[in-house]
Amino acid sequence: MNCRYRYRIYPTPGQRQSLARLFGCVRVVWNDALFLCRQSEKLPKNSELQKLCITQAKKTEARGWLGQVSAIPLQQSVADLGVAFKNFFQSRSGKRKGKKVNPPRVKRRNNRQGARFTRGGFKVKTSKVYLARIGDIKIKWSRPLPSEPSSVTVIKDCAGQYFLSFVVEVKPEIKPPKNPSIGIDLGLKTFASCSNGEKIDSPDYSRLYRKLKRCQRRLAKRQRGSKRRERMRVKVAKLNAQIRDKRKDFLHKLSTKVVNENQVIALEDLNVGGMLKNRKLSRAISQAGWYEFRSLCEGKAEKHNRDFRVISRWEPTSQVCSECGYRWGKIDLSVRSIVCINCGVEHDRDDNASVNIEQAGLKVGVGHTHDSKRTGSACKTSNGAVCVEPSTHREYVQLTLFDW
């Protein structure tokens, strides 16, 4: 399987100018090819776009400076545009899984910049990496490369930091797990409640978010096009990068620990898009990174030969006792501790849900469970308790609940 290994690089001032020229050429070729695709009735082939936007454009006065950079990133820019259109059409026709993909957009100077080199355009050395027409760039090797890279992408983010992203082939690692299975219930204050009783709190971003909020207010007051606004924009981008790095570090460490210690990992298919409609919790939910954690667990489970399972979002994990299977019904989010009427066991709400997620994940094979709760009256949950016994006992249970 192919993986990406990302490293920080420190180019010299002269190399930064060369990289800025390279990013500009790649951006212009992308935008020119995108304009031709929008004007054409039929999508042109990559060879035709390369001939028009690179080969013939170099001979003109308006695009003559394209010959000052390596041709490999320019060709890859056109190839990436073709892949973007292919993903867009397959997404609209239903051949591509997941969310709908938007069509390619115009690249802008202030956004994230990138240029991709294939074999022949770069060379990995001991403490440096050679890029064609750029030179040897100093790199910080935080970990060794597992194999020879097939391509490398040089990146400049909005905060002005430079990175190299290598595509390498990694062999799946098979290690004996400590535990047979685990169920994880995701939350806000407590990010993950595991079925083995362990709880992982979410990182504290409050200090960084206060600074970010203050800097964003100052940025809004700066005059457009001024140097003070540009300095404040870079400061805001650096704060966003710190928050993003802190979140990624937490999610990577947690997902690695979960995958290494368990053979079967069960998660719940959360409707994050629907939860974001709650105006009081939308910001906290979007900052938590639940879907990113799920993606990391899924990718690392495939790498380490683990069984990753996602149960249906319609499973009543918070409405059923994990000890006896008694269903007490829908409960308000403010209720954090529950005493089962049937068996008398007191449950923590999140711990009980994680155990139910693990049990539901072990009942099904790899992939999603059947959405049995989506149709019929079983989709609706009442405020009162619902017994798993025949309907003749329902009245008795409701009276017992009222008296209790």
Instruction: Identify low-pLDDT runs.
Output: 366-404
What percent of the residues sit in helical stretches (DSSP H or I)? 25-40%
The major beta sheet can be summarized as: 7 strands, antiparallel
Count of beta strands:
15
**Helix-strand makeup class:** alpha+beta
Work out the strand percent.
15-25%
Describe this structure in words.
- With 404 residues, the chain is α+β, with helices and mostly antiparallel strands.
- It folds into two domains: 2-169, no CATH class; 179-311, no CATH class.
- 40% of the residues lie in helices and 19% in strands.
- It contains ten helices and 15 strands.
- The protein has helices at residues 13-39, 46-55, 71-93, 206-221, 227-261, 272-275, 282-288, 290-303, 349-363, 394-403, and strands spanning 2-10, 113-118, 122-124, 128-131, 135-140, 151-156, 162-169, 179-186, 190-194, 199-201, 262-268, 307-311, 337-339, 346-348, 367-368.
- The strands form three sheets. The protein has a seven-stranded antiparallel β-sheet. It has a six-stranded mixed β-sheet with strand order 10-9-8-11-12-15. A two-stranded antiparallel ribbon has the order 13-14.
- Helix 4 packs antiparallel against helix 5.
- The chain is elongated and about 85 Å long.
- Residues 366-404 have low confidence and may be disordered.
